[in-house]
């Protein structure tokens, strides 16, 4: 249906209401004649949503993917922002800018870098590349994390078994001390090895007393002397562990 310009103007004026009607009443005079095109430009400049191209480009370049925004929604939003920002440029250039913005503003930097290096020609292709990289990363890193958790659990089990073994040894030493009527194993002497690691000594294997080893036992050294062996070293303490005496010369 082809309407004349006056008919278009009349129907437009009949449909005006609210602020648009007030604006038309204030800006026009009764005797002045407004054409339909002039009236439309006046209304668009006042109420139109069209923004400057520079503003659209600034919004496009500053756009990034929101925290909970899906990849599909992010791609659609990039295309929506690119359309008014590059209306004066060819469609191929607009598509290239949109794909670049999609990769640069994506939250997953590694996946976006992978997609950008593949140089996709369409937004759908870039979207598929990002998803593919995310799937591969999840599959590989997930196995690594599970393997790390297994190693931690194995180490924990080993540490627990070692602690139980030490408890069993300590319990056995206590029972042995009770039967032999000697000092309980709680009086274990701690010495330091050359590497700085503490070492525990239980009862002497010759006399059963705590605090020294068999080779340092006075009774054992006396026994060796009686048998004609040259003693290597004697304790500084006597038989009762109280009387001290100098060690014999080698």
From TrEMBL:
Keywords: Metal-binding, Zinc, Zinc-finger. This is CCHC-type domain-containing protein. Residues 228-250 are annotated as: Disordered. PROSITE patterns: ZF_CCHC. InterPro entries: PNMA_C, Znf_CCHC, Znf_CCHC_sf. It comes from Dreissena polymorpha. GO terms for molecular function: nucleic acid binding; zinc ion binding. Residues 204-217 form the CCHC-type domain. Residues 228-243 have a biased composition (Basic and acidic residues).
